[in-house]
Design brief:
alpha/beta, Rossmann fold, 41% helix
């Protein structure tokens, strides 16, 4: 059973211990989520004390109104099960917040857990053996004992209720957003500099994501091969750092017959990524499964048309403002690319609808909804109680 929440007066700020181990240089999905939701939370003006816990140094937390606790420890999983509970017992927070699937199996205080997706259950073949064993063994217990579980979409919420022993009253979807605030398009100087640094072609499709099997890049490359002859000036740019089980992806990148038009630029910083989005003809994101799909809304926020997958959360995130295809069909992906590449009116329509959709989501809203879960728990109520 979940640890009973503390009795916290409604008007008292909350004191919350937060695992920030994913907030590191080179961060992607979960690390960006952790950073952005905490920055937005600190801007709510609630007076809550957020205690940032990590086994590594975090220079980027300098200047933020958070308390940092250590100590440094080389093995994150071992730190989380041993040293982190000791810190929690010493600090006596109202709650702990674990934004990256995992927390102590013997919880020292009530906690809220974010489950970003259940790909490790639905697509286990796309993970390393270590990750499969760790998450599949620990998640059911952690979900069962959590005071509340956050998910980034209603799609993932349904997956949690279907696949894990979760109380529906404790599982809450708190949608994510593009970088907040989005800001203006990249400057001409940034565009020129980054185009030169990355050797970007004049006209290109963009794929974004860590190079790992779930991103479906081999099928995207095959689809690009099918349409390449009809659009001889079109290239494909792949942006993302190396991940796990990426041998097939690297082979597809190196062996494609149109490899002179397929460019892998590796992990890029935030400024470069904004340029890549803004300058692309379209984002192609035919992922097999996502809990949210940040690149979809990031591209939309910069006015870039999007092709993405039917199913999982991606339909929900795109909300009709993207070309949706069957991610298992190379032909369907190719047809979608051909529509986007050949129809300027379609691209303009998707650009307009995408900007509207992206504007409906914000990290301020994510932080408000996240904080509301903790506040309801502190008041002795379950997050989805109607009363």
């Amino acid at each position: 059973m979940p640890t009973p929440p503390p009795a916290v007066p409604a008007d008292r700020p909350l004191r919350i211990l937060v695992d920030v181990t994913t907030w590191v240089p080179g961060r992607t999905g979960v690390g960006l989520y952790t950073e952005r939701v905490l920055r937005a939370w600190l801007g709510l003006g609630t007076g809550d004390q957020l205690i940032a816990a990590s086994n590594v140094g975090h220079d980027e937390l300098q200047g933020l109104h958070v308390t940092r606790v250590g100590p440094r420890f080389p093995v994150r999983a071992l730190w989380m099960q041993t040293l982190l509970p000791v810190q929690a017992l010493r600090l006596k927070p109202d709650f702990a917040f674990y934004p990256n699937y995992l927390g102590p199996l013997l919880p020292p205080c009530p906690y809220v857990l974010t489950v970003h997706d259940l790909a490790v259950f639905l697509y286990p073949e796309t993970f390393t053996f270590k990750k499969r064993v760790l998450q599949r063994a620990a998640l059911p217990t952690l979900v069962r004992n959590a005071a509340a579980i956050l998910t980034p979409s209603e799609s993932t919420r349904r997956d949690v209720l279907r696949l894990l022993p979760a109380d529906p009253r404790r599982v809450v979807a708190t949608p994510l957003a593009a970088a907040d605030p989005v800001g203006p398009p990249p400057s001409l100087a940034d565009v020129a500099r980054i185009r030169g640094e990355l050797h970007l072609p004049p006209r290109y499709l963009l794929a974004v994501g860590t190079l790992e099997p779930r991103k479906n890049l081999p099928r995207l490359i095959q689809a690009f091969e099918q349409i390449a002859g009809r659009f001889p000036d079109l290239h494909l740019v792949v942006a993302g750092g190396r991940g796990w089980r990426d041998d097939a992806i690297r082979a597809a990148l190196g062996e494609t017959p149109v490899r002179d038009r397929v460019h892998s630029v590796g992990y890029v910083d935030a400024t470069s990524l904004r340029v890549l989005y803004a300058e692309a003809l379209a984002l192609c994101y035919p992922s097999l499964y996502e809990g949210f799909g940040l690149p979809v809304v990031e591209a939309m926020a910069l006015g870039t048309p999007v092709l993405t997958s039917r199913g999982s959360s991606l339909d929900e995130v795109a909300a009709g403002a993207a070309v949706a295809v069957d991610p298992l069909s190379v032909e369907a992906i190719a047809d979608g690319i051909e529509k986007l590449a050949g129809d300027a009116e379609l691209r303009d329509d998707l650009r307009r609808r995408g900007l509207v959709r992206a504007s409906e989501l914000s990290w301020h809203r994510t932080a408000l909804e996240t904080r509301a879960v903790f506040a309801r728990l502190a008041a002795g109520r379950l997050p989805r109680d109607e009363a």
